[in-house]
Amino acid sequence: MEFFNRQSFFNDIQSRELNGFRVSAVRKRPHYMGNDSQDLAPIGAVAVEHDGDLSPPMALSFCKTNKNAHILALTDEGGYIGLYNTRKKFTDSSHYGENAEKAKVSEWVAHDNAIFDICWIKDDTNLLTASGDQSIKVWDTQEKKCIRALMGHTGSVKSISSHPTNQDLVASGSRDGSFALWDTRCSNTYQKLFLSPISTVYEAHLSCGRRRLRRRKAESMSITSVLYLKDEVSIATAGAVDSVIKFWDTRHLKGPVTQACPQSESTAKEKRLHGISSLSQDLNGVFITASCMDHRIYMYNVLQLERGAIKSFSGGRIESFFVKSVISPDASHVLSGSGDGNAYIWQVHEPQSDPITLKSHDGEVTAVDWCPSEIGKVATCSDDFTVRFWNIQSSCYSNTRSPSSIRKRVMAMPRMERRKLFVDEASSIKSDTKNWTSNVVSNVCMSGSSRMQEVGTPESQEKRISFNPDVKENLDKTPEAKIKSPSSVLNPPSSLKRKTIRDYFLVS
């Protein structure tokens, strides 16, 4: 195996970017070797190798359904996809290569170039892959067959994200400085396998002044991360040019509707601009985290973007755009890789406290992920050619409420449902409770009359409920009432038409 200096790392990556579909020579990333640290032992570790050749892992993702959540998808620089069962029992004496064979569910070659991102869709039956060959592919994971190829980017595809409810819709970000929207249901009459984007935004993270100048390097205009937000119409994008997160309305893509940055505009101009390596959001979609190249991870509340970053986490080393971070599904913790060979976990409600350190890797820790249903299980991968699994539940989880949990407003039942409920209740109550039920249900019309029954409370309560026109009016306004509820800010009724992201992310 070839070895190269660390200083040539980004040159190696640049040489792997393809011009069209000509496959250029791929130089290997640096090989880090060393002894395993036993300070915080993982529950398992597997080597990433094919026919004896080691390959640096690039992206990983746990399945999204509870049934398959223990299955981890892994991609590497050689273009392979591997599916691993993380519930396998690994012994300390086992070789990492033996562990890989034991835990491997399936494996296949998906691209002729590195795969930078993956995304599970369709209840884990399909898998999206984003590659350096400038394409996105949709895979049938059972048949290991490509069922769609999304073509249109002119640079490596760095990030992909699916629509939260309609997973035929996909957003992608590329090294060419553009992000694109795709609909996998669309097909060309003559070429059903290949799809073109339904919309593309070019130079999404270049300012107007810079666009007038000579085209900048691809590294500085690259879109490093995209997120399809929970309101189902908005997309967040970040790039290598600066630490600005832009928010777009997919129905009107002429320009971003708002943006967020950790510093104010005046302060940001005086400081060096740092790019963002990754974005992530919690299950409820309330918080977004951004890994910044200033070695900090910033957290934003999408309901209050004008406040800027509400928290920041420091302690790790984000020295390349391969180092990622992920917020936990319940928004209680943030997990990040690091250039110092460790992974770090911060508690969201104590951002200034020292993070939990996962020590075991011997190279830069890059991609990380949380298991969505097995609380405390995480996976980390590194340039030491290994993927390691951890159970940190006893170390950092407690019975505290999730920061992103939202209390839902309890709405009164519609009139007809309420009438039916009390009629059914009255018919099923036993005779020995007749005295009490007379105070609960009275004047129930069983003869088909349209008059609504009167509802009362037990005699010990002095207040009675009176259904007057004002209350009736409030009950009939459920769509308008719901939009005022915090639980519906991120999921407004589909019948309501709005114009921008701020209509969905109401400022509280």
Describe the protein in words.
With 508 residues, the chain is an alpha+beta fold. It contains eleven helices and 33 strands. The strands form nine sheets. Strands 8-9-10-11-15 form a five-stranded mixed β-sheet, with no helix packed on it. A four-stranded antiparallel β-sheet has the order 1-31-30-29. The longest helix has 14 residues. It is globular, with a radius of gyration of 27 Å.
Question: Which descriptors would you attach to this protein?
Answer:
5-stranded mixed sheet, 11 helices, 33 strands, globular, 508 residues, single chain, 4-stranded antiparallel sheet, alpha+beta
Number of helices: 11
Helix content: 10-25%
Q: Give the overall shape, derived from the CA principal axes.
A: globular
Mean pLDDT: 76
Task: Give the amount of beta strand, in percent.
Answer: 25-35%
Radius of gyration: 27 Å
Beta strands, count: 33
Helix vs. strand class: alpha+beta
Q: Give the termini separation.
A: 57 Å
Largest sheet: 5 strands, mixed
* Largest sheet: spatial strand order: 8-9-10-11-15
Low-confidence stretches: 1-38, 211-216, 264-270, 406-413, 417-426, 428-493, 495-500, 504-508
Write a brief caption for the model.
The chain has 508 residues and is of the alpha+beta class. A hairpin with a 5-residue loop joins strand 25 (325-327) and strand 26.
